[in-house]
Design a protein that fits this description.
Strand content: 25-35%
Strand order of the largest sheet: 1-2-3-4
Shape: globular
Number of strands: 4
Helix content: 40-55%
């Protein structure tokens, strides 16, 4: 799946999951392993992409698409995607 196509299907389910995990991470980061959050994203994002990384600060996921990689994060209260290497 191409980056733009994935961004179009990054829907309410994904947004809610991301927002929930982001809020939980803010509260529990001293006690929980960030890798568990990555596994949750991998299990719940089933489109034809690979969720391959997660960042702690800012909380973000890295997604591999056929035409490159993107990082998805919350910026100024809105979801934001940017191309990355």
């Amino acid at each position: 799946m191409k980056k733009l196509d994935f961004w179009k299907v990054f829907n309410e389910k994904h947004i809610n999951l991301f927002a929930e995990l982001n809020a939980r991470w803010k509260d529990e980061k001293e006690y929980e392993d960030i890798k568990e959050y990555l596994e949750c994203f991998k299990k719940n994002i089933k489109e034809d992409v690979e969720v391959y990384g997660i960042l702690k600060s800012p909380f973000a996921i890295k997604v591999k698409c056929i035409d490159g990689n993107i990082k998805i994060k919350i910026k100024n209260g809105r979801f934001h995607a940017e191309s990355i290497k």
